[in-house]
Amino acid sequence: MDAQTLTYIFVGVSFAIYIGIAIWSRAGSTKEFYVAGGGVSPLANGMATAADWMSAASFISMAGIISFMGYDGSVFLMGWTGGFVLLALLLAPYLRKFGKFTVPDFIGDRYYSKTARFVAVFCALIVSFTYIAGQMRGVGVVFSRFLEVEIETGVIIGMVIVLFYAVLGGMKGITYTQVAQYCVLIFAFLVPAIFISFQATGNPIPMFGMGDTLASQPDTYMLDKLDGLSKELGFNEYTEGSKSMIDVLAITLALMVGTAGLPHVIVRFFTVKRVKDARKSAGYALLFIGILYITAPAVASFGKLNLIETVNQKDYAEMPEWFTTWEDLGLLAWTDKNGDGKIQYLGKAKEGGDALTGIPSFKDSERGESGQRLVTNPSENKNELYVDNDIMVMANPEIADLPNWVFALVAAGCLAAALSTAAGLLLVISSSVSHDLIKKMVYPKISDKGELIAARLSATGAVVIAGYFGINPPGFVAAVVALAFGLAAASFFPAIILGIFYKRMNKEGAVAGMIVGISLMLFYMLKFKFDFFGGGTQEDWWFGISPEGFGTVAMIFNFIVSIAISKFTPAPPADVQEMVENVRIPSGAKEASGH
Fold it and tell me: Membrane-spanning regions, if any (predicted)?
């Protein structure tokens, strides 16, 4: 059976499963809509959290970005897994004991202030829409390639699917849908990795195969071969980093604390029955996430090696069908600078490329004589090829010439990853509007049924906005998502940590800290990533830290401002301080100690 037919079958079956689960588990109350009724088991919640977490950035883009960054890409592995350790130890159990529906709900009650709640809602919307922009771009790319439709059409199809099970089922429907999506995406990620590892090294375990010798060259280790090719082509050695130590540390920390401050991840720990289940959920989630994350470097390495050996110094006219397919989508580009008809993949672009990876950009309006999309890096640079990070995982089965059913499986996995996180983010957006704004601030007397309607209408509006981002993407998936983590680190993390562990923390300090943190991160992101406020180059970065890592700096300013202002303003009311004290005491501790 051909790849296209298999893709329709695999994707169609997976969508039928998701929709069936949504109908079976539809929400009938606001508690079911916001936190799945609070009765999800730790194992199911761990799988759902993993699916919610492993978005298009993890499935589609992370291995791709490691392919081009090499060692420097390890910041994503360290940051995104380390964040769950912080969640398990410092946040999940305490937030579950607090027993609220949303992060703004926690901040509004902890800091006894409507202003604090409003600022938290604003931050949640900024973080969530920044994050969802990457997901919808992933949805559009996947649909356009695998179902052979326009990117705009693909985004609309994805919007309809997400809207159906997010609006109908709420958190209850999303949770059990995400359990199914985790099974699909992890299987889809591991199967081609096992195939490619065995094909290249004879070792079926990808993470071991990456460090093994090549089947075609028994005396050569795979990574040594990749290092050698990279040096010959004018790139940095694959296994050596080029980023400064301070930027590596800043990005890693921003991703870690950003993870611990992401609203759509935190809300998952409100869905379990008991406080100890929240900690168990975080442990299960880290285990399930780790399966993909320890495999991603192998997928990246094998994919880069296969790409170089397939295209470099080869005739453009003899390229396989997958090359021209991706080229037509604008995610692969070549221009014949020396007129020899061969593809030269040599060195980095000196300007006009992506700040995170250094790969060249391209102009959509320019085409060569053969219809190829033109690379616009400077003429003195010999590189003739542009490869979008986001295609590496999706194109891997084609590059390695794997069976058609593997290609179809990857399509289903890519969509599961993008749609699962998009659904979780939509729920955060809808609950922030319906529960935190309407119920808690604008119209407290609204009925449970009215609030449920408002939540579903908010989700519908959020889907439309998210669709716009998918059709007009701001960048490749992982870069956009990394910025969302910086925004979460700069805004939520200090307010939540201080709210749990510092009784003297008051509303004035929390509000000022969140405003300073989010404003600083937004300014830096817009200036250096999107060329607002006069733009700037890498040489202009503050402290030598990239926009992806600046969340760490903004977070530090948030902590300083929050604590300083709280010192010079009135202490929180006694009942709030007592509430904080009770949240930190493990369940049953008072009875056990006789108090």
Answer: 6-24, 77-95, 116-133, 153-170, 182-200, 248-270, 282-302, 405-429, 450-471, 477-502, 509-526, 541-561
Average pLDDT over residues 203-232: 89
Task: Tell me the β-bridge partners of 386.
Answer: 333
CA–CA distance from 592 to each of 110, 296, 586 (Å)? 27, 46, 10
- Using CA atoms, how far apart are residues 31 and 33, in angstroms rounded to an integer? 5
Task: Using alpha carbons, select from 210, 178, 175, 174 the residue that is nearest to residue 51.
Answer: 178
Burial group, residue 568, by CB count within 10 angstroms (0-12, 13-18, 19+): exposed
What are the tokens at 179?
């359990």
- 353: which strand partners? 360
Q: Domains of the chain by range and CATH?
A: 3-302+401-584 (1.20.1730.10)
Q: In which element (H, E) is residue 387 found?
A: strand 385-387
Q: Phi first, then psi: give them for residue 197, nearest 5 degrees.
A: -65, -45
CA-nearest of 332, 301, 303 to 237 is 301
> Which run of H or E residues covers position 386?
strand 385-387
Q: What SS3 state is found at 590?
A: helix
Q: How far apart are CA 547 and CA 458, in angstroms?
A: 30
Distances (CA, A) of 302 to 69, 70, 92, 384: 14, 12, 37, 22
Helix (H, G, I), strand (E, B) or coil at 569: coil
The Cα 31–Cα 587 span in angstroms is 22
Q: Cβ neighbours of residue 78 under 8 Å, at least 6 residues apart?
A: 252, 255, 256
DSSP 381: S
Radius of gyration of the chain (CA): 24
Amino acid 406 reads: V
Residue 127 corresponds to which amino acid?
Answer: V
- C-alpha–C-alpha distance, residues 526 and 547, integer Å: 9
Q: Which residue has the tokens 């799945």?
A: 36
Return the pLDDT at 497.
Answer: 92
In angstroms, the Cα distances linking 523 to 229, 388, 490, 551, 573 are 40, 27, 12, 11, 34
At 486-530, the pLDDT tens digits run 888 999 899 999 999 999 999 999 999 999 999 999 999 888 877
Could you read off the pLDDT of 352-402 as tens digits, one per residue? 344 333 344 444 334 444 444 445 444 445 677 878 777 888 888 888 888
